[in-house]
Amino acid sequence: MSKRAAAAVLAGVMIVGLSACSSTGGSSDGKKPGGKLVLGFAQVGAESGWRTANTKSVQEAAKKAGVTLKFSDAQQKQENQIKAIRSFIQQKVDVIAFSPVVESGWDTVLKEAKNAHIPVILTDRAIDSEDTSLYATFLGSDFVEEGKKAGDWLVKEYQGKPGEVNIVQLEGTTGSAPANDRKSGFADVIKGDPKFKVVASQTGDFTRAKGKEVMQAFLKAQPEIDVLYAHNDDMALGAIQAIEESGKKPGTDIRIVSVDGVKDAFTAMSQGKINFDVECNPLLGDQLMELAKKVKNGEAVERRIKTVEGTFTPEQATAALPTRQY
Ligand code: AHR
Known about the structure:
Residues 45-299 form the Periplasmic binding protein domain. Residues 1-22 form the signal peptide. It is found in: Cell envelope. Its main location: other. The protein folds into two domains: 3-141 and 282-307, 3-Layer(aba) Sandwich (Rossmann fold), CATH 3.40.50.2300; 143-280, Response regulator (Rossmann fold), CATH 3.40.50.2300. It is built from eleven helices and 13 strands. The protein has helices at 3-10, 49-65, 78-90, 107-115, 143-157, 177-190, 208-221, 233-245, 263-270, 285-296, 314-320, and strands at 21-24, 38-43, 68-73, 95-98, 120-123, 137-140, 165-171, 196-203, 227-230, 255-260, 276-279, 304-306, 311-312. With 326 residues, the protein is of the alpha/beta class. The strands form two sheets. It has a seven-stranded mixed sheet, sandwiched between helices. Strands 8-7-9-10-11-13 form a six-stranded mixed sheet, sandwiched between helices. Alpha-L-arabinofuranose (AHR) is lined by residues 47-48, 50-51, 124-125, 178, 206, 232, 234, 259-260, 280.
């Protein structure tokens, strides 16, 4: 947390009937101190290393850009995010940004924001509403592409090798854009070869604890697992614990492909425990502040801004580890 944010928290975190809602400066009625832009940001939660890095990026960028940030942590519950957005509307913030826990069910509250003339920015995750007038822009990754990259790696890895490849999949939060898209992108690529079989697929809710728990169940139910595809690194890291406790070697007995590219996963890769990682960049803060200023000023912004990301082999991850920011 920034010094200024910490000071604001010490001075008394503003509680507005939400699970966790704090403000880096600003007053509880949303008045703009010294004409500063007030941004209400409804975060998903703190479910993963990726999310923690994303929150830090947004908080630091707000401080740097002189934006008053009203921050809410929804603890992975859509109802908490809806409450947070309603509270931001009541406080008459200048701009609302949020990373939707799930894709559907946003029209009502976003219409309320629209009626209050408060522009909305989707960050990190998309919604499935047909009414695209409900938000100004969407800044974030292409999750379908990430799933495809994971599938491409697998296809290459097993090219020319005979026999079936039994895959277990740890899905992200049910109904979330990254879970839906990473699953479909991956499925699209592997469907071209019948030797790839997804023998079990279940949600691990993007958390380490759930990833471990579900992997333990997979290991009990599936006699032959060749590959684990995890929709994020935290679930992969939890699954690694389960695999090791079962007496198997992650990365060797069960090959692992994951998504995110967080430091802990790179460490696991340097130890040979994860075989391939698809990057999902959480450092969206600076772009978000720039966009918030533009939409507040009525300037034109692109409807869709995609994050630039790569992929990592164990060798590349090991080399990147010393300077990895998250
Ligand atoms: O929406 C991005 C995803 O959400 C990240 O892959 C995951 O780690 C997070 O919880």
